[in-house]
Design goal:
Layout: E1 4-17, E2 21-23, E3 26-28, E4 32-35, H1 42-55, H2 60-63, H3 77-89, E5 92-102, H4 112-123, E6 130-135, H5 141-144, E7 148-159
Parallel strand pairs: 5-6
Antiparallel strand pairs: 1-4, 1-7, 2-3, 5-7
Helix pairs in contact: 1-3
Bound molecules: cytidine-5'-monophosphate (C5P) and magnesium ion (MG).
Length: about 160
């Protein structure tokens, strides 16, 4: 088996008033939040897909269908921790994660350390191996108009054997 495997993840959720903005398991103070079946943590969803992709284990919808009442309002850090366990059971260890959240407002950089620590705790990584970056969409398109947020992630796994 190949020693290293990379995986890519992407997700998007609508922004709506009266919803919480949770990114990487951290609640960010904001007038608008993300809407979805779970807590709509777009960052955790992108990283979950990247882990599953690297391990060749399908995608988030396969493991956590949004039609299943068990996952309604669920904390997406559960998905992340479960994806890490599935990858581990398949013989892999996560080397590092890198991700980008694309959101027009609020500014997220002051929350970077908290998000990195939350993700790292969930994935059994050092925060140093768990990078999170932030971008606006320069006011263009649905993200730029404040209608939605997106996240992209890449994960590297190494074989334990
Ligand atoms: O999108 P733009 O290139 O203008 O972003 C510049 C910087 O602003 C980013 O590198 C990031 O540090 C920060 N940023 C942020 N929160 C956002 C978007 C961008 O902290 N929602
Ligand atoms: Mg999602």
């Amino acid at each position: 088996m190949t020693k290293y495997r990379s995986g890519l993840g992407w997700d998007s959720h609508r922004l709506a008033p009266g919803k919480s903005l949770i990114l990487g398991g951290v609640k960010i103070p904001s007038d608008v939040g993300l809407d979805g079946h779970s807590d709509a943590d777009v960052l955790s969803h992108a990283i979950t897909d990247a882990i599953l992709g690297a391990a060749g284990l399908g995608d988030i919808g396969m493991h956590f269908p949004d039609t299943d009442p068990e996952w309604k309002g669920a904390a997406s850090t559960k998905f992340l921790a479960h994806a890490e366990k599935l990858a581990c059971d398949a013989g892999f260890v996560i080397v590092n994660v890198d991700a980008t959240v694309i959101l027009e407002t609020p500014k997220l950089s002051e929350h970077r350390d908290a998000i990195r620590k939350s993700l790292a705790d969930c994935l059994k990584l050092e925060p140093n191996n768990c990078s999170v970056k932030f971008k606006t969409a320069e006011k263009v398109g649905p993200v730029g108009e404040g209608k939605s947020a997106e996240a992209q992630a890449i994960v590297l796994l190494t074989s334990k054997y």
